[in-house]
Amino acid sequence: MADSFNKVNKGVTYVPQASAPSNPTNGDIYYNTTLGWQLRQAGAWVSLGTMSNPMTTTGDIIYSSSNSGTPQRLGIGYEGATLNVSAGGIPVWIGGTPPTSSHGIFAGGASLLSSIDYITITTTGNAANFGSLITGRSYTAGAGGNTLGFISGGTNGGNLTSIEYITTATTGSGTAFGNLVVARSEHAGLSTTTRSVFAGSDGTLEYITVATSGSGTNFGNLTATQIDFSGMASTTRGVFSGGYGGSTNMDYITIATTGNAANFGTMNTIKYGSGAFSNATRGVIGGGASDWGGTNTDDMEYIEIATTSNTSNFGVLTAARIYVNGCCTSTRGVFSGGVSSNIIEYVTIATLGNATSFGVLTTNRWSVGCFSDAHGGLTW
Q1: Which of 95, 184, 232, 253 is such that its CA lies 20 to 30 A from the CA of 79?
Q2: Which CATH architecture has domain 103-372?
Q3: pLDDT band at 69 (very low <50, low <70, confident <90, very high)
Q4: Could you tell me whether strands 61-64 and 299-304 are parallel, antiparallel, or unpaired per DSSP bridges?
Q5: Residue 224 to residue 46: CA distance in whole angstroms
Q6: How far apart are CA 162 and CA 296, in angstroms?
Q7: Measured between alpha carbons, how far is 67 from 158 in angstroms, rounded to an integer?
Q8: DSSP-assigned beta bridge partners for residue 296
Q9: Does residue 9 have a pLDDT over 60?
């Protein structure tokens, strides 16, 4: 055998070499520092190729992505996932529990707050400080992805275009992401895993790509100019509800495409300054008022997002208030704050009924950037 190997105990260790060993015989192998593994075959050296290590995380798996043996990384699956094989012969993880923090985020808000509160939605208790925004802002809108959450626009002496983001699972302060197409306040946001959409302050919608820092891109138009309304999403459809001027209207969009919104249905009661959240199938709208200066409501209504229709009664909040904020997991929805309010309360989304006390925010908050990393618009 070529002298590129040393025997060590019960095994063999190789010594990388810059050139072929002398006096080789067929069947010899050695590792060339430039060409990788070499096999002596029919009186000539045949390259067996090199392999760079594609793994990045504990638990990763390497597999061949083609007949050439090119190494590919399969990242570690979620807890409880099973390893399967796709139709193309590639290993894939199926199922498992995604590692969400289930954090609900309440960022900024009137009056020009820069602080950020958070809760863990799956438990109950008072909110804690998460960090601070770069710019204090009122009447802003939030949208949450799997790992990042976005706070867009708002007002601070004038309507803002700036978008900030946070990593929802980890406490910390806001970072600049980009800018909206137009300055917006009193608007609404919603998100899927790949795209966040912001609407209102005028009659337009725009979107950002969650994975790529940058500015907004035009999406289309609402059915009417609207402010002080709310947004919610499934994995495919976004719904905007209520708004100024005594509106009971609901619009919807297909989030993965661009285009104008269409009518979804109407709400039973007027919802100006309401909050909303949704899991993958059901959206709940709560609080608000009949109009500016009108009577605040404790009413909650719901829709099934896949089917255009009018709302149905869900239950009532623990207190009537306007400019409520909403976020959720797949099972639990939370309404918080409102004008001169620090209340946090929750419902079980699948079960109609009245809200139950959750805790309190660190301060009174309303018209905040509110979102979670476990809502119905996200896939894993």
Answers
A1: 232
A2: 6 Propeller (2.120)
A3: low
A4: unpaired
A5: 70
A6: 31
A7: 60
A8: 289
A9: no
User: What's the whole-number average pLDDT of the chain?
Assistant: 89
Six-digit token string for 48: 């067996």
* Stretch(es) of the chain classified as CATH 2.120.10.80: 103-372
* Tokens representing residue 144 in the block: 């949450």
- Token representation of residue 74: 């399969």
Strands (E), 230-355: 230-233, 237-241, 249-254, 262-266, 275-278, 282-286, 299-304, 312-316, 325-328, 332-336, 343-348
Residue 99 pLDDT exceeds 70: no
Phi, psi of 199 (to 5 degrees): -140, 150
- Exposed e or buried b for every residue in 57-95, given b needs 16+ CB within 10 A? eeeeeeeebeeeeeeeebebbeeebeeeeeeeeeeeeee
| Overall average pLDDT of the 271-276 stretch | 94
Nearest CA to 288 among 268, 307, 304?
268
pLDDT bracket for residue 15 (50, 70, 90): confident
pTM of the model: 0.77
SS3 per residue for 147-176 = CEEEEECCECCCEEEEEEEEECCCCCCCEE
Residue 239, pLDDT > 80, answer yes
Res 265 pLDDT > 50: yes
Residue 66 scores a pLDDT above 70: no
